[in-house]
Write a structure and sequence with these properties.
- The chain is mostly helical.
- The protein has helices spanning 2-7, 9-30, 46-57, 80-91, 96-123, 126-138, 148-154, 175-192, 198-211, 216-235, 239-268, 272-279, 292-303, 310-327, 330-333, 340-366, 369-387, 393-404, 409-416, 428-437, 455-468, 473-482, 484-492, 495-500, 508-523, 526-531, 546-549; strands spanning 282-283, 335-336, 424-425, 537-541, 554-560, 563-568.
- The N and C termini lie far apart (67 Å).
């Protein structure tokens, strides 16, 4: 161990720096005098992931519905990542939100070391591995066919952090631990060593199978890579590695079996169609390639540093082919789901590793020995500076917004004192915070459709919003035509964006249907409107209280901070 630390101390230091950059903005927020326990959420969908982690804390590890009391459904999104973070938080006595934040630097630390281990195995060069680990971690924004991030860097306004991509909750903060852990084990046992170590074969199979419970993208990529390797070993008559790859696949499939059974139950659920439409599951047989993947393959195939092991080149070429196969699975299945996830969390990190290996290989080969350490330090310094976005002017705005969200503190503290399980109606931004910090339901969350739910429930929620806005039935159709993007997001989520390429392309017959249903909804009493969503409590901003004060079915019961609380009569 001492020898390992002495040889690879720089990788450990790099991982610690990345972790420190990740936690720095949160430490700054925690030191604010006005901090009321509301955490900073800046990366895509982190509010949803935080709410899901809190759901595990509430004793619902399957996370079948985060926002309503529908706990007897098949899970729609596998919950393993949230369970891992919740387990970490409970072990250290943290609440759900603080556990989510505390897990971020730890995940970044582990992923950085795993990328280093993979890059070192591929190149057998500490210099190349160090830069290959730094590039996707600290220079992720630079991995693009655009000069904008480079110009930001040159202009002293780096845009690479501090919200590093690997710190995004669950995907990829947990899923990429499985991804890079599996890649390290796969290369070392199936490519580098003469014979696989069987305990690592079992672990590799478990990592591949377990990745399905966090990310179908990681699972399909690793599965495709394993299949390619197995076919290659069979073609080479390499029985030792072919058997090892076969057993890895069997273990992965066994681990996947519970997921398959759950998916069968989910697919049979009467609200599956509504759910699949909302999340953007689309019928497609279009070929997807892009520019980055062919560029990666050509670099590896024709410009692989001659000092690096040839097996490393073969492994990366297989990885490029595996990404292509996973990216285009819809050519066989006819179903596509957000192929951008492959690009963000697999292709770009692999491209960063390849770029780092080539930069490191050039330094090793062409830079004189007495300049080598200085050049490496310079490259790492640029990447570290690129990731220190909290020094850039835009961070002042991000920090200000995080401080402003502390206004939700009094509301969640008040809701935490209510012993009765409430179904709380609020505006959409407030509905993000209620399930993160309380045990109450929040039917107005933008992510509600990510779970099996009747379309009628989404319709009634939409109608209540417009009635509260004071939109009369005679004006309703004209109003929603002018707000087509909002209507689409509220009723059908990502459906039109993914199937039509235009979220405003609402079918003409839907306008008539919605308008007719709204007229029926509007004729009903306020009590019936609230009953349609089972609402028991309303939390309205003080500035928006006027329509609620005029509703006879509600009674003001408290004022907490910027919010007025109403209970049903």
């Amino acid at each position: 161990m001492a020898l390992l630390l002495r040889e690879h101390w720089a990788a450990l230091a790099l991982a610690l720096i990345a972790a420190a950059i990740t936690i720095a903005p949160h430490l700054m927020l925690w030191s604010e005098p006005g901090y009321r326990g509301i955490e900073m959420m800046t990366l895509d969908a982190e509010n949803h992931y935080m709410a899901r982690i809190h759901e595990v804390y509430e004793g619902h590890p399957a996370i079948t519905n985060t926002f309503l009391e529908n706990k007897d459904l098949p899970y729609a999104t596998p919950p393993l990542g949230e369970i891992v973070i919740a387990g970490f938080g409970k072990f250290f006595g943290l609440d759900a939100a603080r556990a989510a934040i505390a897990s971020k630097p730890l995940s970044v630390f582990i992923i950085t070391l795993l990328i280093y281990a993979l890059a070192f195995s591929l190149s057998r060069s500490r210099v190349a591995a160090l830069i290959a680990a730094a590039f996707p971690t600290l220079g992720y924004n630079l991995i693009a066919l655009s000069l904008a991030p480079v110009l930001d860097l040159i202009g002293s306004s780096p845009s690479g952090g501090p919200f590093l991509i690997f710190s995004r909750l669950v995907n990829p903060s947990i899923s990429d631990i499985f991804l890079f852990g599996a890649l390290v084990l796969m290369y070392r046992n199936l490519f580098e060593r003469e014979a696989a170590r069987w305990w690592q074969v079992i672990l590799l199979g478990a990592l591949i199978g377990g990745s399905l419970y966090m990310s179908p993208y990681v699972y399909s990529f690793l599965g495709a890579l394993l299949l390619i390797a197995w076919v290659w070993f069979l073609a080479q008559r390499d029985g030792t590695h072919a058997r090892a790859a076969f057993f890895v696949g069997i273990i992965a499939l066994v681990c996947s079996a519970p997921f398959v059974l759950n998916y069968a139950a989910l697919h049979a659920h009467p609200d599956y169609e509504t759910f699949s439409r909302f999340i953007g599951l689309a019928e497609s047989r279009h070929l997807v390639l892009g520019f980055l993947l062919p560029l990666m393959a050509m670099l590896v195939a024709f410009m692989w540093p001659r000092d690096f092991p040839k097996k490393g080149r073969m492994f990366l070429l297989f990885a490029c082919v595996a990404v292509f196969l996973a990216l285009n699975q819809q050519l066989i299945t006819g179903v596509s789901l957000h192929t951008g996830h492959y690009h963000w969390y697999i292709t770009k990190p692999l491209a960063g590793i390849i770029a780092g290996l080539f930069i490191g290989g050039c330094i090793v080969r062409f830079v004189p020995v007495y300049f080598k350490h200085s050049v490496v330090a310079f490259v790492l310094g640029i990447l570290i500076y690129n990731s220190m976005g909290f020094l850039a002017p835009w961070y002042a705005e991000t920090h200000r917004e995080a401080v402003e969200t502390q206004a939700y503190g009094p509301l969640v503290e008040y809701l935490g004192t209510r012993d009765v399980q409430e179904i709380v109606w609020s505006d959409v931004p407030t509905a993000d915070f209620i399930p993160i910090y309380t045990a109450h339901s929040a039917p107005n969350s933008i992510n509600l459709g990510s779970y099996p739910i009747p379309q009628s429930f989404l319709d009634n929620r939409f109608f209540l919003e417009y009635r509260l806005r004071g939109v009369a039935p005679k004006d309703f159709e004209g109003t929603i035509r002018s707000e087509a993007a909002h209507v689409s997001a509220r009723l059908w989520g990502l459906w039109l964006r993914e199937t039509k390429g235009d979220e405003t392309a609402i079918p003409e017959e839907e306008f008539s249907r919605i308008a007719a249903d709204y007229a029926v909804f509007h004729k009903k009493s306020w009590s019936e409107n609230f009953d349609a969503l089972d609402i028991t409590l309303v939390a309205a901003r003080t500035a928006d209280r006027a329509p609620y004060d005029a509703i006879p079915a509600l009674k003001e019961t408290a004022t907490v901070g910027d919010f007025v609380i109403y209970k049903r009569l």
